[in-house]
Specification:
The chain is α+β, with helices and mostly antiparallel strands. Helices cover about 30% and strands about 25% of the residues. The chain contains 12 helices and 22 strands. The strands form 6 sheets. The protein has a 7-stranded mixed β-sheet with strand order 8-7-18-19-20-17-21. The protein is globular. It binds uridine-5'-diphosphate (UDP). The site of uridine-5'-diphosphate (UDP) has 13 residues, from helix 6 and helix 7.
């Protein structure tokens, strides 16, 4: 009855479902939640403001194919994300850049540090903090220690429960030191938020006559793996399966649970039109939450009140909270590899996406990856 089964209706699942459906395949999408769009889920709250239930999601990409593909399903609102971090009690722009330098240091020191940066690095370069910390130049060493201590160390400890050195360098490198004056959080060619939200975008992608969407259904309800064979509704299934959930769950965690970091999302209504000076303000050194996001700064709304979100990182406990971020320790990678080897016994299952590949994909990476997997599986190219 179905040519393809897709487990999960986040962006990875939605894009692959649409691609297969558009080449005439009958696709079943099985989603555990009652709604689509995974952790990009958004909705208009009681204050009339579009909020992102699982934390702020800002779309940005340098990939024209990804932008063009998504633009078939949504209009975009022009939006450049801006983030500040509270350093010594004052919100300053991050990524830490040449403007930030002038906000945190007196002029003569800022001049000296700017000169040192420009002597050692090209204008426009992005330098990961762990790289800057290795600098031989005494001024840069001072700057690196300052930025590390004030912006990265305590935020990362809160966010991950680990020091920056214990997680992959790629994680802290996402927010580099920027030798320039561009205050935007991202520099990509294409940036924005979907005019009617991410959930509407995912719904539009899935709105295809060849797609059957089964919500509120665990994959165990429809699918079973026995030996090296797949059963769908009790019948042997030879079609393709795309799995976008946690890989350890597919194999009943037989090699142990893969570690994830979770976040408790606490929304608050503030009885004022506006709360803060940037869409997101990070608090590396104070409080138990990492950051506060004010959603009307992302999706403009003329409302008398405003909605803010405080993010409290916490340990992931299956069944109690949601898995957000894979924790990239050596041990976790090794466990993931075991699951991956197990999966390769099944010729027609492909694990794709942030959860199933155990990767820190942004939304654009997830869409790009889904399009590439489609090309690989079908032998079709763009
Ligand atoms: N980070 C930090 N201080 C900040 C912002 C980010 O130390 O003020 C580090 C932290 O380790 C974080 C990582 O950089 O997990 C990536 O930050 P990003 O804003 O990309 O995280 P996301 O929005 O995906 O949670």
């Amino acid at each position: 009855m179905f040519d393809a089964v897709i487990i999960g209706a986040g962006f990875t699942g939605a894009v692959l479902a649409e691609r297969f459906a558009s080449r005439g395949e009958k696709v079943l999408v099985v989603e555990r939640r009652k709604v689509v769009s995974g952790n990009c889920y958004d909705e208009v709250d009681a204050n009339g403001i579009l909020i992102h239930k699982f934390g702020p999601h800002i779309f940005h990409t340098d990939d024209a194919r990804v932008w063009k593909y998504l633009s078939r399903f949504t209009e975009w609102q022009i939006y450049f994300h801006r983030v500040k971090a509270v350093v010594d009690g004052k919100p300053v722009p991050i990524p830490f850049n040449l403007n930030t330098l002038r906000e945190v240091f007196p002029k003569n020191l800022a001049d000296k540090l700017e000169a040192a940066l420009l002597k050692n690095f090209e204008y426009g370069k992005k330098i990961p903090i762990l790289e800057l910390k290795k600098s031989a130049d005494a001024d840069l060493q001072f700057l690196a220690d300052f930025v590390y201590e004030k912006i990265f160390l305590h935020y990362t400890e809160k966010q991950w429960g680990l020091s920056p050195e214990k997680i992959s360098g790629a994680v802290t490198a996402r927010v580099p030191i920027f030798v320039g004056r561009d205050d935007r959080y991202f520099n990509d060619r294409f940036q924005g938020v979907p005019k009617r939200g991410y959930t509407r975008l995912a719904e539009n992608i899935l709105d295809h006559k060849n797609i059957k969407l089964l919500l509120n259904a665990d994959f165990h309800d429809v699918m079973a793996l026995r030996g090296e064979e797949i059963f769908l509704f009790g019948q042997k299934f030879g079609g393709r399966v795309i799995y976008t959930g946690q890989l350890d769950e597919l194999f009943d965690k037989k090699f142990g649970a893969l570690p994830y970091r979770s976040v408790a999302m606490k929304f608050e209504t503030i009885d004022a039109e506006k709360f803060q000076s940037a869409p997101s303000v990070n608090y590396p050194n104070n409080y138990n939450f990492t950051r506060i996001t004010e959603f009307k700064n992302i999706h403009p709304a003329h409302t008398p009140r405003t909605t803010i979100l405080k993010e409290f990182p916490q340990e992931y406990v299956a069944g109690e909270n949601e898995p957000y971020y894979p924790i990239f320790t050596e041990e976790a990678r090794a466990a993931y590899e075991k699951y991956s080897a197990e999966l390769s016994k099944f010729k027609n299952i492909t694990a794709v996406g942030r959860l199933a590949e155990y990767r820190y994909y942004d939304m654009d990476d997830a869409v790009k990856r889904a399009l590439e997997i489609f090309d690989e599986l079908t032998g079709e190219s763009r």
